[in-house]
Amino acid sequence: MDAVIILDRLQRHLEIASWAELTHHSNRVASLVTRVAQILNIPAVPMAIAAYAHDLGKISWPVELRDKHPLSPIDWGLIHSHPVVSAKELAQIWPQAPPDILALVRGHHERPGGRGYPDGLKEISTELSIIAACDVYDAITSERAYRPGGAQDARQALLAVADFAPARVVAALAAVVGKIA
Fold first, then answer.
1. Class of the CATH domain delimited by 3-177
2. Which residue, 22, 131, 155, 179, shows the most beta carbons closer than 10 Å to its own?
3. C-alpha to C-alpha distance for 144 and 148, rounded to whole angstroms
4. DSSP 3-state helix, strand, coil percentages of the chain (rounded to 5)?
């Protein structure tokens, strides 16, 4: 199926959830991923689809969880399950979704050395690092109702990304956002 059709279906799915910030976040992450992939000469379309779909699982959350702070252990369980739910949602929307795209959606919170979730992968691909880096960058530099103190600046976000992403991914992201890593 054509990428434009898939992205249109995903956009409609997100809009039905009536969670504008999630839609905006997905757009920003997909845009960053596309530009970083282009700098690194990696095919961008599959990654952009995965980036756009990475948080689909959040639309099943109770509305009050969107802005809740602090979180209970039950809340954290829901949050940690969203990558798996996101991959399942994408597979329902797009039954022919390539397994590599589903794996990128599922793994967007994985970190090298088993520090991420949901599977605690020891090693992650460059593609997965790019999606994770762009997701973290956007989350840190965007206003979030649940985070006291508001958005952080780009340099702080790039330092956080450098804690887990390969140097070439950090450098490409820094080039995209116009900052020196």
1. mainly alpha
2. 131
3. 8
4. 65, 0, 35
